[in-house]
Fold this sequence. Notes:
By secondary structure, the protein is mostly beta strands. The radius of gyration is 30 Å and the shape is elongated. The N terminus is likely disordered. Helices cover 3% and strands 48% of the residues. The relative contact order is 0.07.
Amino acid sequence: MLINKALLSIFLLFLITKISSQTPSYYHYTSAEGLASSTIYDIIQDKDGYMWFATANGVSKFDGIHFKTYRTKDGLNSNSIISLIEDHNGAIYFGNFEKGLNVYKDGKIENYYSEINGKDIIVSNMILDTSTKDEHKIIAYYRWNGIHILNKNELGKPTVSFINPLPLAINKIEKLQNGDLVALTTTGLFNFKDGLFSKLKINDLPETSITSLAKGKNGSYFLGTKGIMYHIKNNAVIKKYPIKNGGNNMINTILFDKNDNIWFTVLSHGVYFIPKGSDKEIDIGKKLGLNYTQINKTFEDNEGNIWFCTYGKGIYYINNQYLKNQDENDGLSNNDVYSIAKDKSGRLFFGTFNGVNVLEHGKFKQLTYHSNKLITEYIYNIKVFNNELYISAAITKRGIIDSYYQNLKIYLTSYISSYKLRNGVYLFGDRNNSINIQKSLYTTSVQNSRFPLFENKFMSNRVNQFFEDSKNNVWIGSTLGLCKTQIFINESDHVEIKKTFYPSNPVLNSKINAIIQDQTNHIWIAGEKGIASYNLKNDAIINYPNIGAFDLSSSTSLTTDSKNNLWIGNMKGLYVFNGKTVKY
């Protein structure tokens, strides 16, 4: 399921009262959830998006919800699968630790190659050689047992040649961005072509054991050694990353992700993260309880999720969006974030317990007004209309304070909520059951502009939300419930307001927190007692206090994605509703 990444990032932040980079959200799967084994050696994502896991007890295929496991009864040569690759035709090859290779195609598993001269092929790694037009050249090898080159012949069967790399001791064979193969050995980096090895001369790289490689940007790559990670470009070291995390400091795997972050694992000592543009190591393994765990493989899928294959502890994966969460240590004025808005240029504005921050070019700046005076008040709500930012804050001055942030006009008000209708009329909500309706921010020309919302009297009731739908109805969410209105200003400058309430509806007659419209002309309302939909075509209302076993009370926020799925922020977590079923 796909959702606009920028929108999802904003939406996820709405769901949490405190934004903290201390503990990223993650998923964890073991054999208890259906994985073939909790020891996983390798992972790939096939061309159809399915995840495949090579484990100590078979192969598991994962569709995002369920695992399907394959073992010897399904055609595997053995249950100890240690390596996976997919070729250009979608066939998937399984490397058995002591029983050669299997191939999966057309839904069936077959033996591909298992022995040479009566001896079983031992496989610990495989790689598909794309340096030539032969799309089916598979290089299968075991660290101390030589290299098997498997070429598919006209009948679809492999022909095998064997290469003894001695005196070289090969740790891994990897592929550079240009398709060239390189051998990571105990004595440095070697080019591997036509069955021959030639030493690559790299300036400032010592003759040391190289254990891992990751492709970087613009033809560069990263090499992992004991205690140091090297960034290489044009056959020269352009940067060194000393590893200071303890243990034996042998870098086992490296990943350079789509966001230019660096991930690396240390032998039996967890996983670490270096954010883009930083030299700071973040001990992600400690946050996930993996600080003394062997990570066999680190992998980024098509949607940017980061996966960790562990020895004995199953699969972990992190949604990379969460790693963008920032807190006071990163310059945010306060960790309590109550409202977020985004302007046309993509800048994000955060309303907090202590003022408004703008996130621009990866850095936070606290907004100011009038002679660079900081906005330090509690922020109720922030909205962006065209190129104007409306900030509702706990300031003592009544009325409007205007200012600028660069080219963005700012309006600071003491009201609980604010909104600008398409016809240019302004709405302001207060804590005393009142709404103000104004043709201009600074005029009093609209007569009787202050109206009570419920029971035609001013009383304790916070007006939290305004929303104008495609038919120009104005929906108002408050502590006492929902009000649907039609607002007119006649030729005499008098306001006419028609109000509709829902006293017999338990969801709409309780505290309302969010109101949106989807692509099918349904208004969605989230509140204290669940969510509800209102069909603008026939005025039909459906309440969802729960869906199946999921309790939707205390829902706080709503958005839709490009497929019109409804995402529901709730005090208990995040739900996705496709109109029929809900996923937690």
